[in-house]
Design a protein that fits this description.
Elements lengths: L1 H19 L20 H13 L3 H4 L13 H4 L2 H9 L1 H4 L13 H13 L4
Length: about 120
């Protein structure tokens, strides 16, 4: 039981650090520096539906900001390609993440979900 508690405490710390943006990853490009990453309203809406369908709301909240892990700063920190990698193979971005891989998504779904996540911003 103690071993399980320690594991859960370690996982919680990793998730909290990730939510705060304290990751071992280096920022490679800002949103303004990337090209070809313009958001498309219909693609974003499709991504929002996938966000709900795949229960991303369990960790990120329905708005992407009210859950354990706030996604509102993703667009400022990561390019669209990096977000796609986070979604399809999150351990490639952060080996300690608790996020499951969504490598079953096709390119269209991955694009939609990535654009939706990058559209999440605090107002």
């Amino acid at each position: 039981m103690i071993r399980y508690s320690r594991l859960m405490a370690a996982l919680l710390i990793v998730l909290l650090l990730e939510a705060c943006g304290n990751t071992p990853l280096q920022k490679t490009k800002t949103n303004a520096e990337t090209t070809g990453n313009q958001l498309n309203a219909s693609v974003v809406e499709n991504g929002k539906q996938l966000f709900l369908q795949y229960r991303c709301v369990q960790c990120h909240g329905e708005d992407g900001m009210s859950g354990m892990i706030d996604l509102s700063n993703v667009a400022a920190k990561y390019s669209e390609d990096q977000v796609k990698t986070w979604i399809a193979n999150p351990r490639a971005m952060n080996p300690a993440t608790g996020m499951p891989a969504f490598n079953m998504l096709n390119d269209e779904q991955l694009n939609g979900l990535a654009q939706f996540v990058r559209s999440i911003k605090k107002k």
